[in-house]
Amino acid sequence: MKNCWDILNVKDDPQNCDVIFVLGGSSLAPVQRAFELYKEGFAPKIAFISVGGNFGGEKVWGMPENQKYREVLLGFGVPPENIFTKGLTTDTLAEAQKAIPFLEKELGTNVLRMILVSRPVHQLRAFLTFRKQHPEVEYLNCPAKEEYTEGDQETETRILQEIERIRIYSKKGDICMPPPEFPVLG
């Protein structure tokens, strides 16, 4: 399973970008990572548009994800004018389809480079989905700092779910083709 975790957890060295985009999920670790990248000066804005889906939002915090993320970032001291959010989506495909138009309208400019921040288990699917939906944008993968723990049933189940989703979504044409080393089920 560790090998699968490593494949899903794609990482790039952070570089200056137009915006940091946080994907929805059942963890505040991506918000923490986005804040670290913001504080280090890699982008002047942080954005997110998920209200929550299968793994987050109301089910975890009793409020939409975008509201929780905003609350946390304000608590970290991020000025409100540097946070761009609106509750628009409940899944990764919709985030990828709607994020760029939302940001370009809000920022008043084209988004050329974006840092994607997700949970490590979700990072590859997020990247492949965004790249398929908006190939004109350069994406850098800077996942949350979560570690793989051998035998953690919840994480291992999620790894298998992600592998299956990538396989299905690539067949549907919703994402770019996964890398050759990607495990194939069945």
Structural class comes to alpha/beta
Number of helices: 7
**Residue windows where pLDDT falls under 50 for at least 5 positions:** none
Global mean pLDDT: 92
- Radius of gyration (CA) equals 15 Å
- Global outline: globular
Between the first and last Cα atoms, what is the distance in angstroms? Answer: 16 Å
- Please tally the β strands and state the result: 5
Write the layout of secondary structure elements.
Blueprint: H1 2-8, E1 19-22, H2 29-39, E2 46-50, H3 58-61, H4 65-76, E3 83-89, H5 92-107, E4 113-117, H6 120-133, E5 138-141, H7 153-172
Parallel strand pairs: 1-2, 1-4, 2-3, 4-5
Helix pairs in contact: 1-6, 5-6
How would you characterize the overall build of this protein?
The protein has about 190 residues and is of the alpha/beta class. Helices cover about 45% and strands about 15% of the residues. It has a 5-stranded parallel β-sheet, sandwiched between helices. β4 (about 115), α6 and β5 (about 140) form a beta-alpha-beta unit. The protein is globular, with a radius of gyration of 15 Å. The two termini are about 15 Å apart. The mean pLDDT is about 90.
